[in-house]
């Protein structure tokens, strides 16, 4: 049986370095584990239990970190809620205009339609 320091130095660090990760340690893995669980929607109480914390506040305040992809998705969802879906830039104004006004594109000024 390997001790955790031996496991870290002989197996984990060389494997991490092989894929381009430096400074890997157990604490980093705990933070990563908690953050990834949060990202996939694991309930906070479950993450707390997995990490062995006595309080969910410790888990939330110290171990959960925001992922850039999650922030981007959150902003896009809020934008869609407030503004609506993004319009297709390849679609011209005439195609996006309301049908009753689309045929009036040539009308300029008051004209006799008012």
Give the number of domains. Answer: 1
Structural class: mainly alpha
What is the mean pLDDT?
A: 79
What share of the residues does DSSP label as strand, in percent? under 5%
Note the main attributes of this structure.
single chain; 114 residues; mainly alpha; 7 helices; flat
Write the layout of secondary structure elements.
Elements (H helix, E strand, L loop, with lengths): L3 H15 L7 H14 L4 H8 L4 H8 L4 H15 L10 H4 L2 H4 L12
Helix pairs in contact: 2-3, 3-4
Please characterize this protein's 3D structure.
By secondary structure, the chain is mainly alpha-helical. The radius of gyration is 27 Å and the shape is flat. Mean pLDDT is 79; it is low at 93-99 and 107-111. 60% of the residues lie in helices and 0% in strands. Helix 2 runs antiparallel to helix 3 (44-51) and helix 3 crosses helix 4 (56-63). It starts with a helix and ends in a 12-residue tail after the last helix. The protein has one domain.
């Amino acid at each position: 049986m390997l001790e955790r320091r031996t496991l870290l130095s002989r197996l984990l660090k060389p494997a991490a370095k092989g894929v381009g990760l430096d400074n890997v340690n157990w604490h980093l893995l705990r933070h990563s584990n908690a953050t990834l669980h949060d990202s996939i929607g694991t309930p906070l109480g479950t993450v707390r239990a997995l990490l062995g914390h006595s309080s969910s506040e410790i888990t939330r305040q110290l171990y959960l970190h925001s992922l850039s992809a999650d922030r981007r998705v959150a902003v896009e969802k809020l934008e869609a809620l407030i503004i609506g879906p993004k319009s297709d830039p390849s679609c011209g104004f005439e195609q996006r205009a309301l049908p009753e006004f689309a045929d009036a594109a040539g009308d300029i000024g008051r004209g006799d339609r008012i």
